[in-house]
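[Solved] Which block belongs to which protein?

Original post:
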Amino acid sequence: MSATTLQRPAAGTAPAKPAAPTEQEVQAYLRLGLRNRWWPILPSRYVEAGGKPLGIKRLGDPLVLWRDVDGQIHVQIDRCPHRAVPLSRGQNEGTSIRCNYHGVEVGPDGTVLSVPGQPGCPLEGKKAVKTYPAREIAGAIFVWFGDALHPEPAPFTPPPQLVSEEWSRFLCYADWEMFWRYSYDNIMDPMHGTFLHANSHTMYQGETEAKFVTRDTPTGFIFEKEGQRDVNFDWSELVDDGALYGRLEIPYPASAGPGGNFAIIGFSTPIDEDTNASFFWRCRRTTGWQRDTWRFLYKTRIEARHWAVLEQDRQMLANCKPGLEKFEMLYQHDAGLIRLRRYLAQQARLQLTALREAGKA
């Protein structure tokens, strides 16, 4: 046998284990977000019942969104199974979507219903268009982005701030030109509020020096200022429980109306490597006439101030590309975002490893 002859493993020998993902591969995988999570993709109001299909991109996937005549939302890959042109340039037929290029009709479950140019062709009856599990929560469309091993959605119980009748909420949505994870870094960095938002009507108090501690929770962790609560932006929480989001509270003065602290639930959904769709629910625990008072004050006096605070964050992080970490010199206040980054890398590594071992990557 020559030296160049391929050596086959002996019978019964286990195949070689795939190489573990490198740090570079893990970070590349994270550029488009973590799979196997529910992600908000768009406010519900953007898609009308029976209206024109809408094409967007999320987690790098081209998506078409449309509602049937009953108002049910449908999210599918934005690609006709015939010539791969965007279905979002087609027609909403009320119970199906039709491609304008050659008239191929696709049902809500991705099955090709008709091919007018060749009736009875093998394409008809095939489930040829990827369809994403979707649900609507608190005025936003959420989609399950599973990998090849997890096509079926995992359970997701939204936080009470988004679904409980005891809470009143407003959704703030904006597309930001920055790497999606930097938005989560921002949430897990309570100290920036003391400086960047020092002139805010709610974040001017509190010490400019602080020691931070980390506290584990069943679904993530809390990063908080030691010995300071209900003064400023004093703590933030990372939650990973079917969906990945941040939660925090900011104390409100009595002049801002009833309801106690102001809670924020934040998601940052990757669009591509350089942009994200940011969702911030602004919530207060109010009912009855107090809810009406709070909602009136919010729309007439408070909302513009909140947008101004968000604009400060956006300007600071605008056009920040992946890879800035190599220039950073972090200190104790950054322990929350350091832990966040390690956690995301760990989750990405687990997903990549499982896909490789299953021959799916």
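(Second protein starts here: sequence line, then its structure tokens.)
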Amino acid sequence: MIDLYYWPTPNGHKVTMFLEEAGLKYGIHPVDISAGDQFKPEFLAFSPNNRMPAIIDTEPVDGGTPVTVFESGAILLYLAEKTGLFMPSDLRGRKAVLEWLFWQVGGLGPMAGQNHHFGIYAPEKIPYAITRYVNETNRLYGVLDRRLATHEYLAGEAYSIADMATYPWVVPWKRQQQELDDFPHLRRWFDAIRNRPATIGAYARGEPFASRPAVTEEGKKLLFGQTAAGPRLT
């Protein structure tokens, strides 16, 4: 059983996509990030970066005490190793998956996240910042498109955790001021993953939480105003 601490963001969707593909039994514990649930002591006990998703595996493969994992990329890698799914066992195949997984967590996610922030949430619209992150997102889409021109999936011919990590960050392409049809190979890959039954099921699991009200000003302070001192509400 996997206890999943989750909110329907791109990083949250990564994990439900894997769990649905693998058919693992899991339960969702919502972490409303605009309400400050990520700062609750019981959550920080196993997710010290006050970010979701995080998991507790109550049945680890070694038969020992429950295992906690935070950070979405680490969760995908942990689950792939637990199940033996969506991660090649050969040296070169594994290397390719890890390259693209790290590319997403170190590149596409942070850059698209800043794109969202300055284009949608920032109280002051700063043209330089918006242009900077829209252009960088566009560059990264180009990297994906060139890779997918010669490979069915990011790591080769087999669907992997690298694809699961990347797909949710392309879903909001309109918010990122991109045009997906400008990238035909990326569009082919995107449509193929979107139509997978597990992807449909994963996004359906998030729907009860997705109809939340718009982020309030207090919620923005929680999401964007943190320092080492902790939650800042004023």
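Accepted answer:
You had them paired correctly. Confirming on the second one: DSSP finds nine helices and four strands in the chain.
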